[in-house]
Automatic annotation (TrEMBL):
Residues 3-129 form the Nudix hydrolase domain. It catalyses: 8-oxo-dGTP + H2O = 8-oxo-dGMP + diphosphate + H(+); 8-oxo-GTP + H2O = 8-oxo-GMP + diphosphate + H(+). Pfam families: NUDIX. It comes from Undibacterium danionis. This is 8-oxo-dGTP diphosphatase. Its EC number is 3.6.1.55.
């Protein structure tokens, strides 16, 4: 395992009613079947917001118009040490589509499970943002 964590851009799409979009990790990835906020690895030399916009376009066909940095969380999984950079977006265009075959769901009170471990502590904070 490398000493420096992998930077990951994570986006929380939030509707005016406070619902947020969660996606299920597809087969073949670590923690397949677990639910998380969509996002992905930041490439070398890429700005985190640019990575977020790229990942949302690749995975969901959604164009993020505006997103604000929210918080950062470091988490050590058995397979990786990650630094998650969370952004909240209330401004995007397009309806999410399952471009990688992943399930996704708009959630008010989050009811899907299992949730990715790094996601769980954030749900209480998100509930307060509504």
């Amino acid at each position: 395992m490398s000493a420096s964590p992998v930077n990951v851009a994570v986006g929380i799409l939030m509707k005016p009613n406070g619902d947020v979009l969660l996606a299920q990790r597809p087969e073949g990835k670590p923690y397949a079947g677990y639910w998380e906020f969509p996002g992905g690895k930041v490439e070398a030399g890429e700005a985190i917001l640019d990575a977020l916009k790229r990942e949302f376009m690749e995975e969901l066909g959604v164009q993020i118009i505006n997103a604000e940095a929210w918080c950062g969380v470091e988490h050590i999984y058995p397979h990786a040490h990650v630094r998650l950079h969370f952004y909240i977006s209330r401004d995007w265009s397009g309806e999410p589509q399952s471009l990688e075959g992943q399930a996704f769901a708009w959630q008010g009170t989050v009811a899907v499970e299992p949730l990715l471990p790094a996601t769980i502590p954030l749900l209480n904070f998100i509930a307060q943002l509504r």
